[in-house]
# Entry
Amino acid sequence: QVQLVESGGGLVEPGGSLRLFCTASGFSFSDYYMSWIRQAPGRGLEWVSYITSSGDGMYYADSVRGRFAISRDNAKSSLYLQMNSLRADDAAVYFCARVKNYYDNDYWGQGTLVTVSS
Amino acid sequence: EIVLTQSPGTLSLSPGERATLSCRASQSVSSSYLAWYQQKPGQAPRLLIYAASSRATGISDRFSGSGSGTDFTLTISRLEPDDFAVYYCQQFGSSSYTFGQGTKLEIK
# Structure
């Protein structure tokens, strides 16, 4: 069955960096676009970024463009999110999700928590 | 950026009743790229509806989606206890996504 497992979250100081990981299984990873979506504590969902199946197209929300970088390794069925210059308002649970035919996200991981605090 | 506004913010209903949730866009959205999700506390969102009216795999036929242009609706007929959760709409366009702020469906 389709599984997405995120890791790499933790506590980081403002201005610091963190790299998130998402390991996929149960489907042909290289056939799908993938997304990162976040949710601040007690708040709604916010799209962060998505990447095309081959990795040659990366798209970002205005709030993270220039600070975050999405990438993937299809040989390892893995998705990454490099987060730099982190701010307090980046604190959230970060979910990776598979993008289906109509740009809906049909499978989600359980999320990894990023805390930004000094 | 297209803004999605969901209403009501909170909907209080009893099991067995019918729920109607609204998602209004600030400009026209392609029906192909309008989705609905359900999220329960401590869980990841679950895809319910894609392309405005198509049910995702394994989703009960009590869930239905409709609408076009700027007005979309998620209807849940005959509410069951497991349906009480937060519901989000989402649209894709111009290489970006936006989500509505959510509607909390609570037991009356």
User: Anything to note?
Assistant: Chain A has a mean pLDDT of 97. The longest strand of chain A covers residues 18-25.
